[in-house]
Design brief:
With about 350 residues, the chain is α/β, with parallel strands linked by helices. About 40% of the residues lie in helices and about 20% in strands. The protein folds into two domains: about 200 residues, Isopropylmalate Dehydrogenase (3-Layer(aba) Sandwich), CATH 3.40.718; about 140 residues, 3-Layer(aba) Sandwich (Isopropylmalate Dehydrogenase). Strand 8, helix 7 and strand 9 form a beta-alpha-beta unit. The longest helix is centred in the N-terminal third of the chain and has 19 residues. It binds nicotinamide-adenine-dinucleotide (NAD).
């Protein structure tokens, strides 16, 4: 297969971690007979320095014409005092909007070897957990009309939470499709005992479920889900939810893994197109020192293979190589523990390639 990948290296540790992901992708291409073409796209601070803005129209066009985008991370102290519309993060918001990325995927996986980083007790962790939060990204409370007005001499703030049937349907379809590539269990999270938007959410999710008889569907109220994530995280496979609930639950799910350098993410639109990036930021404190953990970015590249290119075997291969490297005792500083071997960003990339 031949694929066009737009590469946004970004700022801070971005270039180092993306370089390692490319090394891994090149090895996969060689092993499976694929060709990956890479086009560099500037975004964030690097784009501000080169063009004066965080994302140019040409850069967005290039991203749009690729099969998928792999992103390092953007931002850093150098650009912290720029005016709001010229901050590196604006590039990120612009690309999400420009590419109509309405589905956000945040896996939370606890690896056996990294159990010590998990804040939960051993009997709760058991033999680890592996879930993904599928969050609606472009609707709901964060995008509804809002105002702060004075009523009867008192300030009143209003935010509106709106979801259309179509918005719910398309994210539900994504959730079920993703579950089919995993353990075939969707937990749909809402607040249907209180909110109209949640009652419509539940109705539409059940309609979509009828097309996926092989996937189990469980409804769960959001307050219960927040508890279950720390009480029994093993029960979850795909957590399907709306924007604000997903914002909160995806952070909770990732924190129970305890390792920021291991967390990948993806944002998808209605086609196979997606933007893949680690969940962490640009870590300016360790940039350029060969100390960054590239695994979150390499796992994001594996998600790209799985969800945008339907290369499930290749994605499994990368995930297994990462597990093998952890078993062999290689650790970057952020996941280092006694008895293991401390390696740099490049050496971690090399070790993963060696296991492919
Ligand atoms: P951060 O995630 O960059 O760093 C938090 C801490 O985690 C730091 O100590 C850092 O060294 C460590 N860390 C993060 N990723 C690591 C990795 N791969 N390997 C080893 N250690 C790692 O968060 P922050 O410090 O709040 O933000 C730094 C910059 O990143 C800011 O400018 C922020 O705006 C930006 N940011 C960008 C994104 C993005 O591009 N999507 C997301 C979050 C933050």
């Amino acid at each position: 297969m031949e694929k066009q990948i737009a590469l946004i290296k970004g700022d801070g540790i971005g270039p180092e971690i993306v370089d390692e992901a490319v090394k891994v992708l090149d090895k996969i291409a060689e092993k499976y007979g694929h060709t990956f073409h890479y086009t560099r796209v500037l975004m964030g601070g690097e784009s501000i320095d080169a063009t004066g803005v965080p994302l140019t129209d040409e850069a967005l066009e290039t991203a749009l014409h690729s099969d998928a985008v792999l992103l390092g991370s953007v931002g850093g102290p150098k650009w912290d005092n720029m005016p709001g519309h010229l901050r590196p993060e604006k590039g990120l918001l612009a690309i999400r909007k420009g590419l109509n990325l309405f589905a956000n995927l945040r896996p939370a996986v606890l690896y056996d070897e990294l159990k010590a980083a998990c804040p939960l007790r051993d009997e709760i962790i058991g033999d680890g957990f592996d879930m993904v939060v599928v969050r609606e990204l472009t609707g709901g409370l964060y995008f509804g009309a809002r105002e702060t007005v004075e009523e009867n001499g008192m300030m009143v703030a209003k935010d509106t939470l709106t979801y259309s049937e179509a918005e719910i349907r398309r994210i539900a379809i994504k959730g079920f499709e993703i579950a089919r590539k995993r353990r075939k269990r969707v937990t749909s999270v809402d607040k249907a005992n209180v909110l109209d938007s949640s009652r419509l959410w539940r109705k539409v999710v059940h309609e979509v479920a009828a097309d996926y008889p092989d996937v189990e569907l469980i409804d769960m109220l959001v307050d219960n889900c927040a508890m279950q994530l720390v009480k029994d995280p093993k029960q979850f496979d795909v957590i399907l939810t709306e924007n604000m609930f997903g914002d909160i639950l995806s952070d909770e799910a990732s924190m129970v893994t305890g390792s920021i350098g291991m967390l990948s993410s993806a944002s998808l639109n209605e086609t196979k197109f997606g933007l893949y990036e680690p969940s962490h930021g640009s870590a300016p404190d360790i940039a350029g020192q060969n100390k960054a953990n590239p695994i979150a970015t390499i796992l994001s590249a594996a998600m790209m293979l799985r969800y945008s290119f339907d290369m499930d075997k290749e994605a499994d291969d990368i995930e297994n190589a990462i597990k093998a490297v952890l078993k062999q005792g290689y650790r970057t500083g952020d996941i280092m523990s006694e008895g293991n071997q401390l390696v740099g960003c490049k050496e971690m990339g090399d070790a993963i390639v060696a296991n492919l």
